Prior knowledge:
This protein is α+β, with helices and mostly antiparallel strands. The protein is 51% helix and 11% strand. It is built from 19 helices and twelve strands. The strands form three sheets. Strands 3, 4, 5, 6, 7, 10, 11 and 12 form an eight-stranded mixed sheet that branches. The chain has a two-stranded antiparallel ribbon with strand order 1-2. A two-stranded antiparallel sheet has the order 8-9. Strand 1 and strand 2 (68-69) form a beta hairpin. The longest helix has 36 residues, at 405-440. It is globular, with a radius of gyration of 25 Å. Bound molecules: flavin-adenine dinucleotide (FAD). The site of flavin-adenine dinucleotide (FAD) has 19 residues, from strand 3, strand 5 and helix 13.
Amino acid sequence: MSLRPTLDFLLYQWLDAGALNGRARFADHSRETFDAVLDTCERIAREKYAPFNRLVDTQEPQFDGERVILPQATHDAQKAYAESGMLSAAQDFEMGGMQLPYTIEAAANSFFACASVSIGSGMLTTGNANLLMVHGTPSQKEVFSKNEFAGRWSGTMCLSEPQAGSSLSDVATRAVPDGEGFESDPLGARYRLKGNKMWISAGEHELTENIIHLVLAKIPGPDGKLVAGTRGISLFIVPKKMVNPAGELTGERNDVALAGLNHKLGWRGTTNTLLNFGEGKYPVRSTGGGLDGQGAGAVGYLVGKPGEGLRCMFHMMNEARIGVGIAATMLGMAGYYASLDYAKNRPQGRPVGVGGKDASQPQVRIIEHADVKRMLLAQKSYCEGALALELYCARLVDEQHTGDAQSADDARLLLEVLTPIAKSWPSEWCLEANSLAIQIHGGYGYTRDFPVEQYWRDNRLNMIHEGAHGIQAMDLLGRKVLMENGRGLLLLSGRINATVQRAQQVPELAAHADALAQALQQVAGATQAAWSTGMPVDALANAVPYMQAFGHTVLAWIWLDVALAALALDATKSIAATAGRLGAARYFYHYELPKIGAWLNVVASRDQTCAGMPEDAF
Length: 618
Ligand SMILES: Cc1cc2nc3c(=O)[nH]c(=O)nc-3n(C[C@H](O)[C@H](O)[C@H](O)COP(=O)(O)OP(=O)(O)OC[C@H]3O[C@@H](n4cnc5c(N)ncnc54)[C@H](O)[C@@H]3O)c2cc1C
């Protein structure tokens, strides 16, 4: 079993990604160039990532008092990734990019997530540089984006603070103008920053010559006070080492200091840091003097307009969240492949039924037990279904950027509704897949002699970062399904109903189609009932069960659509993969979709069991 045939089927048979070169932006591409990118990434992931996945887990980043040390394998992997051109895959040819559709970029990156999710922090560098390509000045693009795309420098996203995680409106990092002429710096209006940023991934290392931090901070008003809420948040480029407008290092260090490394449950190949900005450890005197005229304060260059920091950051959120969804999916997939292999080779027990207790008979392999097959099929349906969802969303990103006005706008709105699911569904269910992979390994799965426990630990992050699970759920029920008078939900319902109608014509899928139509009605009814009092405290009390039911309905739709494509390709079911896809779809409809009833009951009745529990009763 390998990932490539699954990807090829989803990309070319299901999503017709080959047709993307009909778009002007992708006209220089063909199935051959898409395949060449996939081949390259598959090879680099196999050679430079997979063999070192355990090593980066056991050799955590170390701080020697001056530098953060990472294994040589991480340096080699990141060099190979940068040389592949993937950092700038989506950019214009003139920028040295490939003008690659996001659908293909996302598929290609899935090989790395499957091989070793934590070796690579390329997603952060690409996200950082892409953001500057949209919101930066020409010189910010030239100096910062270009060097990041080239792999010479790397990027971070500095949003969180010790006291401000889910609630970014409470960001307290301050940015003040850096002396006279602060507005005329060629790299952008120059400020001095002071504050602490927590949890910053890839915040300190020696992998690249420089690290470009994108930092959210507030500019105080004339009274010296910070503006409350998100309106006061601005965005700044803060390089670890000072650079000149030609993009050369000046030799001076910026005032960004590592306060400490976080020692994590998983994802240990990537450093995670607490960074102090402007504490005075590395005073920078060569500009306007700093907060105290002595050089304290980290130098930062404003991106976009003051007060628009979050808007700039959120510009990249859809792709960042699809990226997290793919990481979660691929960790689930890696566990699925490992446990499938184990189940095919591990002899244990005898069949139930006649002769099953006869110890003189040889043992069977555990894949022959119905319950082990159940656990394998659950993993397959979660992970292959999630991969299909992520690629569908990636295809919407391409539609949004290259489709005609109407379909681009539809894609935008569908992405609004689907992004919380693309991020959260795999984070929950592909983590469950990892748990099942451990279960299939029995006691061996609980040891570090097998890879599945690491996949689970690595995956546990995904429900926490990029908007925690509960926050995503409130975004879905509190904002996304309501926005533009519910037009996004209506649009999604239209797509789901179109699949239902096609599947009703196929005897093998007709019962699934009816179940999906009913599920969709249940979701719509619960959405209305949740909001029937118009009170957020009623509606949002059960936002997570709502998101679970919504997500399962979306996945049931994806599986039905995939099953239609599988049958269209192989009506006689002559290839095993077709039976596999139909079996996974059937599993999802028989074992998973019925769960939505329980989830939606508490939503529709605005159940206050949890919300109303007095604190002292716990
Ligand atoms: C390994 C790792 C890497 C990270 N990388 C980065 C990075 O590169 N850059 C960056 O800026 N950040 C990063 N983060 C930070 C991450 O985004 C935050 O941890 C996350 O936003 C949650 O914030 P918090 O940890 O402060 O938890 P809190 O916000 O305190 O939340 C704790 C719990 O309470 C719930 N909760 C909080 N508020 C509400 C509410 N209003 N309603 C309902 N429930 C609520 C949350 O859902 C959560 O389950 C990373 C985190 C980790 C662990």
